[in-house]
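FYI - complex with nicotinamide-adenine-dinucleotide, inputs then prediction.
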Amino acid sequence: MTTERPLLPAEVVRWLRKAQHVAVLTGAGISAESGIPTFRDAQTGLWARYDPRALASPEALANNPGLVWAWYAWRRQKVAQARPNPGHIALAKMERLVPRFTLITQNVDGLHQQAGSQHVLELHGNIMRTVCVAHRHPVSHWEPVAEGEAPKCPICGSVLRPDVVLFGENLPHDVFQQALEASQTCDAMLVIGTSGVVYPAAALPDIAREQGALVIEINPQATPLSDVADLTLRGPAGEILPALVRQVWP
Ligand code: NAD
């Protein structure tokens, strides 16, 4: 006979059951099991020879718009084919089980919403939305252009771009303020699938910890945030999160 070892120690289960506000910070790792490459994985093969700034910065968009569009078209295609995995679904369920729940994501793929999460703070925008550089007009149709060029806004004629935060750009102010407030007031924060090196998002677990929240990291690899966390659960989010929800809210 085998008995399954519980994922969480009893005091962590008690803490999570009592928590009035749970915040979650997710990164590219939670979508890895949906087939969307993490930033590091995405930079293999065809794209390995490019510096990320050559693909995803305002300068790159100005100087080499065709290359930036080709890179985002490749990523958009990956996202369009992807479906939420058990990790996304477990978080949508968790939202219905705790009194207050804030899901902060660095992802641009929209998979949390597809899984049923209601309140998602998208720190870095959404790759499936397109806007123009001049006025941020939201655009869903545009005229095809020759290879190497970027399409233009049908309203003002300026170049179109994905509605994401590029390297060197500020995060949307209101969204970041809400993420900050959640980090300052939560009783527990789950930090899932993020390498913890992209700021200011990477500062949020530290802020939560300083305010007395219990911080739990879920990641198969150690990261700089492992030292901040009270507990690290090493493994894929798609396996750990459903088990966590089952144990805490059976
Ligand atoms: P990152 O690529 O830097 O790090 C991914 C982390 O996920 C790593 O620490 C890795 O060990 C971990 N990981 C891998 N597989 C996992 C799994 N199955 N379960 C749990 N963790 C797993 O990602 P980041 O920290 O989010 O920063 C990269 C930036 O790139 C972000 O700003 C994000 O906007 C962007 N990005 C987004 C997507 C997306 O929307 N899906 C994909 C790639 C990059």
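The pocket of nicotinamide-adenine-dinucleotide is lined by residues 27-33, 36, 38-40, 42, 106-109, 124, 192-195, 198, 218-221, 223, 236-237 (CB under 6 Å). Residues 1-35+84-124+170-250 form a domain with the Rossmann fold fold (CATH 3.40.50.1220).
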